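Tutorial handout. Part one gives the primary structure; part two gives the three-dimensional structure as tokens.
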Amino acid sequence: MLHVSLFIELLRSRPRSLVLAAALTQAALWWLVPVLFYTAPPGDLALTIAVGHEFNLGSYWGPPLAAWAAEIAFDVAGMAGVYLLAQACVVVTYLAVFELGKAIVGAQHAAIAVMLMVGIAALSVPTPTFGPPILAMPLAAYALLYFWRAVGEGQRRAWYVSAALIGLLILTTHAGFILLAALAVFTLANHRGRKTLLTFEPWVAAVLLVVIIFPHLLWLDISGMGTAWMARLSAGHGGARLVLLGRDLLLLVLSHAGMLLLVVLALGWPAGRPEPVPVFQRHPLTPFERRFVLSLALSLPLAATLIGAMLGERSPVGGTSPNVLLSGLAVVVLAGTVIAVHRQWLIGFAWSLLLVAPPLIAALSVAVMPFVSAEPTATAQPARAIGRYFGETFERRTGHKLAIVTGDPRLATLVALGARSRPSFFYDAAPRRTPWVTIEDIRTKGAIVVWPATDMAGAPPPEIKARFPGLVPELPHAFNYAIQGRLPLLRVGWGMLRPQ
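Part two.
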């Protein structure tokens, strides 16, 4: 008699419910962990919000849509709102991939594909760090879904939705151009795809796409960013870029380690005594369906990684997550029409561990590491206290609200986030990256300059002193961590440029 686990029974009878439960569980955990344990935003999230605060059509850090969304979420609900927005993107992504898989391989195999996505680190670990890669996931997933409905199912109006989503994707990350190129090549390379071009909907959709991205294209031309990319692509250092490409490809494979573990366990390795196993069967795929999944699952991450290496970046263009959305679906397609799940109990345990362990480890690292190590993590910095202190100090001394903050990018963006006046961030090391602040603005409005203090004197680093020769450093201010443990006080050196 075959006994099945709850995991397998849900997969058999309610695949959509299983996908939704998994997505909501991951989202809830990754929302609670930063809300309860983080006192500062992870990664570059503070910079993303600071850039979005200016509502420019673009910046050195990329297209504007993710930064705008982060700023709006922060204004509405604070950091909890930003973390919630990030997890909403994850849930929507899983549901979109399920709908796409359901249309191609059926509901049960589509649910298996989504369950495998939990084992891809780029889709399950850095999700609180909202930014272009996180917002790009649902946009790319639904763009693929509606493209399939247009080309694979003949729903001609789906062209409009797909074009609009690709336009929004390009306004989120320039990796959207890679997806656009991949879909164009796929359409032209298949007779079924070329046939759809004989209708007028694809051409109207192309016009819609251009209209959506035209303001950003205009900004790229005016700002010279496009010329800068071409210069980086044509630069030398071929050997170094080859090494970078190999490193990025290795990291891409390693990010799939959890998924590969689930696949190995499902295949029954290591072999044990024969026993009945649950089986999931689907209809055979047409060559067109198989080609759609496998070609895009392979071309998107490889192209993004190759272009990223050519640009000298240390990650694929647009990040890893929006380029590996079809990895789980590709494994299901390669598995054939019948999938037999060996070691179902062990797979259920391993999958649950992959789902729950990363957020728990993140929470424990914040709560326990201060008592183990004297090295603080970035998410433990008291962002609210830092911003409030420097904002109130500037207002008390000058009678004006703090409008500009500069110096160390991490500390400066925390001040920009935590001060009540929401000052603009100025990147003094490369002023062209923050064109919304000029030297004249600093002269008339004043600014706070911050840097990490290494001693009680709090002397500014030589590069900051050279950029602001008239800066008089103040005594460093010390901040406590929420969980102090063995951590030393966080000392921040600072100086004030008074408004003239």
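Part three, for discussion. The radius of gyration is 25 Å. The chain has two domains: 6-363, 381-497.
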